[in-house]
Amino acid sequence: MLHFVDVILPIPIPKLYTYVITEAEVQFLKPGMRVAVPFGKRKIFTAIVHHTHNNAPLVYEAKPIYQILDEKPVLTQKQLELFEWIGNYYLCSLGEVVRAALPSGFLIESETVIKSANLEVKDDTGLNDDEFLIIEALQHQSSLSINDVINILEKQRVLPVVNSLIEKGLITVQEELFETYKPKLVKFIKLNDQYKSEKKLQLILEQLSKAPKQREVLLTFFSMQAKEKGALKTSDLKSAVEASDSVIKSLIDKGILVEFDKKTDRVQFEGEVNETGLKLQDFQQIALNEINENFKQHDVCLLHGVTASGKTEIYIQFINQILQQNQQVLYLVPEIALTTQLVERLQAHFGEQVAVFHSKYSNFERMEVWNHVLEHSSKAQVIIGARSSVLLPFKNLGLVIVDEEHEQSYKQFDPAPRYHARDSAIVLAAIFKVKTLLGSATPSLESYFNAKQNKYGLVEINQRYNNVLMPEIELVDLKDKYKRKRMKGHFSDRLIEEIQEALSNGLQVILFQNRRGFAPIVECLTCGHAPQCPHCDVSLTFHRYRNQLRCHYCGYNRAVPQQCDACGSSHLDTKGFGTEQIEAEAKELFPDAKVTRMDLDTTRGKYGYQKVIAAFEQHEVDILVGTQMVTKGLDFRNVKVVGIMNADNSLNFPDFRAHERSFQLITQVAGRAGRTDERGKVLVQTFNPHHNILQQVSQHKYYDMYAEQMNERHNFKYPPIYRLIKITLKHKDFNKVNLAAEWYAKSLRQFFGAYVLGPEFPPVSRIRNQYHKNILIKIAAGQSVKKTKEAVVKINNSFESVKDFKAVRVVLNVDNY
Ligand code: ADP
Ligand code: ZN
Ligand code: ZN
């Protein structure tokens, strides 16, 4: 009897490929193992075993596999189940899901380029001949393709050798290089715990009567420490006492003061694991009990808790429960910017058991985390990560937490799989038969609707930790301010007053502007011409710091012109404003304050965020200017004022979710203010202070927003009442896109009639020289999603067989965001 294996190739074709295997191989192979297979004329791919069987393929003759690459599966059965769900639901191939899930080091193929990891190989006795040859070759050449390796080793079957070197950390696959940055550690000083009692203190002070300098330093320490709760920066103490370093040092040597390194000023996390954790306040404990109650009936529970109500503290209690059962927890966050603070908070409770997985990690680090998760090692009990961590090989998952569940960054936009990590996480949890906890201060309409329909449980918290009041939100009418000349640059008098007061009280400020760069448009005052991107249908954004015009869609850039491209006039001016401009104005208005910016331009590299966030936490920065990055769940303790420079941009965005999003965005930024002690103050600058959304935001009326928006979604047939599939056609030829889109829409209409909208050009209709045209399918509540998708796939297949449209790219986006 012949044996075959069906494998998943990491390519966009939605089918499995069949290869011949031997009797011995069939005994050995298990689903989820990797095999090297030939593909096409000369290519080698790493493929994933799906299943084995005895049915020869009908239309082609199966080739043998080259080699088995694993002793044990690298993907689990349950993972494959999730991947199949994602492939079916989001209309993409299993191979695309596999490619998104696996760190590239697991998927070596003929096009892969390897390079030396620059580790010194001191002892090459551990290397076999083949490995040695490759390492040697990499000493002469900076990189090798797999084909080079084939030539060097004079054989086709090279992937195991390459894999083994990757596993040993001696080579890496070529990808973007990340900077290596160690977060800056600041020296702090505190009283030795031993001397915390009043009595003991008296004793030391007496003992020190013979060392007056040391005594004086200690007294100064106490007077300063009273303000700062426990620990001080060593440098602050030094500058306060005018004593030489040796005096402080002798106090440390005597064990009276203790010096330690710290990344942040979170007083309770002094590098010690605090096993018991914080004590939940009553309302938090009630919420926790309610969630437990809800879980008896629901697999998913939505925790709707206002900002700074302590949702994270509640998650921590749940994590604790799960870890005691020796199960893993997946903790999803929308953006890696958030991981820094969170990891610190979680490590304070769970120490080494916390693992982080994100795309800015090097390939090697990602493979390491992958293996820890797969082996359920003690280092990967709590896995924090953005979107793609839902695709990890969990062994014994016990709970999924999705924080800031409303965030749109949970939906992958490009490339396929265009999956929603929150929704996929719920499916993942269901596969493991465990619970999912969704949390947000501003739930998505989808989730809140599901809760209202009793599909999910719902628990609400309406108060903040310590009973701190919700921030006071003041709407500032820009029209009026401009008319009465109360503006300095983009700052209203009210905003300036509040900032000044906060600064003079030693408190911090966050300024939010949802555009980066200096100004989105440079305009000729003579003829009105604005420089456009040559490849995209958008104006170029002015970045003053680099003196460049940049396209935010494709990255194209050019120097700022001295004269208008169209008429030659030199009267050029900017229109609109971005974070760079706000930063510049803030520096001018508040010359004594330290101002920093957090946006895509200042946070590149692996530790980009960390640097900015740490500096702000340590109060090395007074005013933080940022894009939506500053909105997402960050927990700062000294922020008194939040300024939203212009609320109108996001309100006027041409998208059916724009109002919901604006509410979320403003509420979330506002929520960064006054989180632990003092009530925060938020100023929202706008030309439309009477806009319903702004009224709802300023009065913290989530439910009103929900009810009103749901009404609109009903009326205009949008999610969560209807489901959407967006189909985008792309081609460089304008006419071809039009023809193709007409053909496509017409075919769809035969099935779905009036539920098909378009084709229509999106607001930015050309990106990277490709024209885009969209068609939208709406799926009513009663309609079968499965049948709809089958019909779409069928139409898509016939479209792809039309010769004229061969080069037109089609993007299917299910549950488009
Ligand atoms: P959320 O996640 O709801 O925005 P957090 O969990 O970040 O709220 O809590 C806000 C702040 O209050 C954090 O700094 C947190 O450490 C603190 N906090 C919340 N609950 C407690 C508690 N029970 N004991 C001590 N501090 C708490
Ligand atoms: Zn001009
Ligand atoms: Zn462009």
TrEMBL record:
PROSITE patterns in alphabetical order: HELICASE_ATP_BIND_1, HELICASE_CTER
Superkingdom classification of source: Bacteria
Domain Helicase ATP-binding, residue spans: 292-461
SUPFAM superfamilies noted in UniProt: P-loop containing nucleoside triphosphate hydrolases (SSF52540)
Subunit structure: Component of the replication restart primosome.
Family affiliation: Belongs to the helicase family. PriA subfamily.
Protein name: Replication restart protein PriA
